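[Q] Does anyone have a clean structure-token version of this?
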Amino acid sequence: MKKIALNIFALGMVVASFTACEDAENDVIDNMVYISEAASASAGEIILGKTGEVSTGVITVRAGQVATKDIKVQIALDNSVLASYNSRNDAEFAMIPAEHISLPSEVVISAGASQVEVPFTVTSFDGEKGVEYAAPIKVVSATGVSVSAGSGAYIYTFGKPLVQKAPAFCYDSKMNMVWPQQYDLTNFTLEWWVRCTNKRGTGGFSINNQALFAFQANKELYIRFGDIVYADQYGRSLYNFLQIKTMGIDANYDSGDPNETPLKWGEWIHFAHTYDAATGDVVLYMNGKEVNRNNGGAGTVFNFTGCTMFGSGQYYFYDLVEMCQLRMWKTTRTAAQIAKNMKKEVKYDDPNLLFYFPMNEGEGEVLNDVTGNGFGLSFGSGYTDGTPKKEAYSWKEYTWE
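[A] Here you go.
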């Protein structure tokens, strides 16, 4: 299914002459040719479908006045436009390969008209992993009319929904993450997608202390479903919340009282936990929105040396947990960055990544860190109380849109 968000990245609003006027009939300062959408100062993208599917877009080339004769307009993709946008917005969009976009090089604003709609098509493709692509469309010239320097170009960005197989884990999937060296971090972000069910598929969040992460460091970072802190109206303990223990009891926090904001079994949930030493703030985001924050005191440096996952043991961890897109950053990601990228892969070689496990292998015994930084995960590599589970309980394909 093709989706088009009708927003455009504005590239400026200053109107200036781009080419010399050649026709006296159209030699009027407010009769420049421009891209109508670029003047709206809004943002947007085209969401592509599966590889090979074709999506359509449109730009509107407009003249300031009704043309007295045909105006031929030259259009092209211009990498300098994209480079300028990336520089101003601290972005890293790459030019869409020409073979995947069909855009006319010339259109005509007919005599008696003031605009022409220019449709184009984009064929969805498998690009470099984690790279975001864009089409910087520019009006290069127009016969007899100047081109607006401010609104003569705009950028369409292209997004793809995250589609992947994700593994399921239980207590016997316990893993000791390969940690190549000690990392001392003043700022970091841990984010992941997770889905919890029981083995019958009829519930989840069944018991206290189902630990997702236990980091080895000079300061605690322990993340689990449940704790004996919330109860329903009958006094029965509730475990359908995420708790983060860190930096001493004063900094512990969670996703909220499940009587009011319960986590729902069977639903995929995105979590992100951030830390900033400059302020001491820890912030928890759920599905791209801040849900809680606390403070453990400014100036703390975390000396990370390892991490154990799914390590609560058979008694405390008997639900099934599916997980994917596990990323740890060496920076405090902003709310906008978290929300923008949670349903996408990110660039595998981003220098701000400490480790990145997409968990999209679909088979096998090993989950790969794609950063090249030397981290590793193997199914059951931390389980010592019986027979370890050397493969995922399941690999199911999901789509995040």
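[Q] Thanks! Anything notable?
[A] The first strand starts at residue 3 and ends at 4.
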